[in-house]
Amino acid sequence: MGRVEDILQVIKDDEKIEGKTLKLVIMTLYKVFLLENSNIQEEIKTIKEILKRHNEEIISLKNTAKNNQEEFAKINDNIKKVINYIKNISSSKQDYISPEKENKNQPIKEITNTSSFPITPRSQNKKSEFKPLQTTKIDEQKKENISQILKEKQLKEDNTIEPFIGTKEQYNIIGKFTQTITEWVGLPKCKVIYDSLSERSINKEETGKSFGEHVMNKPNICFFNFDENENVFGVFTSKEITEFDSEEHDDSMFCFLLKTKRIISVPKKWNIKKSINCAISIKRDSSVLYSFGQTTGNGFVEIAKTWLKQSWAHNISSSFLAMNENALVGSNDSTFTVQRIIVLEFY
């Protein structure tokens, strides 16, 4: 059978169609109709499949949205439960202690237990609670007597005060160098005899008198200083310091550096030069608590009360062997601040 175009070329416009020609035309048109109808059916089928997929996607999205809504409702309920739980705890706890205060008052042994450093802390300081006096008038003499009694009681408790931890990493730094320190000192055990944080918590500030009462007349004591520049340094003496402002020579004395942010290997130890007279001197009435180095005053370090920018090192290398001028604190003849002082007694 010919194409429609071929038939149209044969048939003239005014020619009558009949017989075989008419039959051929009808058959051709029928075939064309079937072909066109077949294409339409395929397109309809394709459209139906697309609509089906879209419908499935819509159903899936609806299910997801429903699940998300249910999950959000569960989360919202959980949040409400947590809020109610916190409210109940807050209302039921009468003596709440903040995490910061708890951290400051934990015993030192909780830190030192994480290392092998045998620090023996002093026992827990338990301040007595005094009820208000049931009197309306107290004369000046009675006030002075009461004040003196309280001071004497506090002084008796001084030797049983356990240092506050403060920044616990500071004790951990000492613990980190356990083996090195004990090898330098030659004694395996030690205990804390002074902590500036503990002192400030009781007396509000450090004093030379109180500092001396804690560290004097004790052998084998080691001073650790933590300064504002992240230096941890100190000095050791095996001799007892028996008097304030004493400058008795001690050939066993050495100074050291445990930690610094400067580019220098640590820990380091420096012994005194043989020809130099060196000592540790406890100051009674001064902003300086103690000094160490030459008794002639040519090469020394002064450690002032904590948080005062009055500590300084002066030509310290002239007192110790193989020491660079700035090795100990990173400067020479420049003031710096010591943030904490810890003193250990070895035995």
Automatic annotation (TrEMBL):
Keywords: Coiled coil
Biased composition (Polar residues): 111-123
Recorded coiled-coil stretches: 37-71
Region (Disordered) location: 94-130
Entry superkingdom: Eukaryota
Protein name from the UniProt record: TLDc domain-containing protein
